[in-house]
Amino acid sequence: MLYAIISQDVKHSLEKRMSVRPAHIERLNHLKNEGRLILAGPHPAIDNNEPGAAGFTGSLVVAEFDCLEDAQAWADADPYLESGVYASVVVKPFKKVLP
After folding, report:
1. Cβ count near 44 (within 10 Å)
2. Are 94 and 62 in contact (CB under 8 A)?
3. Would 79 disulfide with which of 20, 55, 67, 84, CB 3.0-4.6 Å?
4. What is the Cα–Cα distance from 63 to 98, expressed in whole angstroms?
5. Terminal Cα-to-Cα distance of the chain (whole angstroms)
6. What pLDDT tens digit does each residue of the chain (99 aa) get?
């Protein structure tokens, strides 16, 4: 089943985010290589794909897991959460309708 992992950053998270980004991306690439990643990306803090110093306000990951508990465990082990980039993370079942 698909799950949406919706994360909110702490204020002024950009420096922390950049310092642990390689480990975060490595985990996402693992899901991608297994064919389980549907989409992933950050929410820019301003209306621009490259927000510069404004940074990001959170992230969205949609991926396939066997169950909600597995999705939650994966989210709980994210380097962004462990390093204090994320203030909160919500994991919800997700039903893809389109495209």
Report:
1. 15
2. yes
3. 20
4. 15
5. 17
6. 999 999 999 999 999 999 999 999 999 999 999 999 999 999 999 999 999 999 999 999 999 999 999 999 999 999 999 999 999 999 999 999 999
State the DSSP H helix or E strand holding residue 4, giving kind and residue range, or none if neither: strand 2-9
Sign of CA dihedral 73, 79, 83, 84: negative
Question: What are φ and ψ of residue 66, in 5° steps?
Answer: -70, -30
Residues in contact with 94: Cβ distance below 8 Å, sequence separation at least 6, in sequence order: 2, 3, 4, 62
CA distance 13 to 57: 8
Kindly report the pTM of this predicted structure.
0.95
- With the C-alpha atoms ordered 93, 50, 57, 31, is the resulting torsion angle positive or negative? positive
